[in-house]
Design brief:
Shape: globular
Radius of gyration: 20 Å
Distance between the termini: 26 Å
Helix content: over 70%
Order of helices and strands: HHHHHHH
Number of helices: 7
Largest sheet: none
Length: 191
């Protein structure tokens, strides 16, 4: 997936602008992720409801745009209309019944944590000769543990767990981004 361990300094010389942008945006993104993570940890119900509303509105917009596309391209496409209708109905149900929506969203976030862990393990092992690989390994293990804990407590505590676990994951993602920016900066200075 990501293979940074071969000829990193040579690649950095070729793409100095890309490296400078990565350092800057990894730091900014890392700080933003840490702040959002702390908010999720301190106020898990707010993070849960915010996540639910965000996803509901994304689904609502997707349903509206899907309907518009079906209207413009093929008005007799029943599958296109069904897709639009289902997206809009699910979005409205999420907004009207947030507790049930939180339980359903809880399963989706469990899948997210397992996927994040899988990607984190891949990145960690591709970075293994570098010191930063341990941060990504820790991030992947954290996501894996969070996914397991989430499934054990589901659905009774979904209202708190979604916000808390998303906050923890964002916190560690932010720390990993800050560490990645610092590693690139250190390698850049050593040249």
């Amino acid at each position: 997936m990501w293979n940074w361990n071969n000829n990193l300094n040579a690649e950095m010389n070729i793409n100095k602008n890309l490296v400078d942008n990565f350092k800057k945006y990894a730091t900014v993104s890392g700080i933003m992720f840490i702040i959002m993570g702390l908010i999720g940890i301190l106020y898990p119900v707010i993070m849960t409801y915010s996540s639910l509303v965000f996803i509901a509105y994304l689904m609502l917009l997707a349903g509206i745009f899907s309907g518009w596309l079906t209207w413009k391209s093929n008005r007799e496409d029943w599958a296109g209309w069904l897709k639009s209708f289902m997206l809009i109905i699910v979005a409205v149900l999420l907004l009207l019944y947030p507790l049930s929506g939180a339980a359903a969203l809880g399963l989706l976030f469990a899948v997210y944590f397992f996927t994040d862990a899988f990607a984190g393990f891949g990145l960690a092992f591709s970075l293994r000769p570098q010191k930063i690989w341990l941060f990504w390994l820790f991030n992947a293990i954290t996501s894996l543990v969070l996914g397991v804990l989430f499934l054990i407590n589901w659905p009774t505590s979904s209202l708190y767990l979604i916000g808390l676990l998303v906050g923890i994951s964002l916190l560690f993602d932010g720390i990993a981004l800050l560490s990645g920016g610092a590693l690139v900066d250190k390698i850049d200075e050593e040249k």
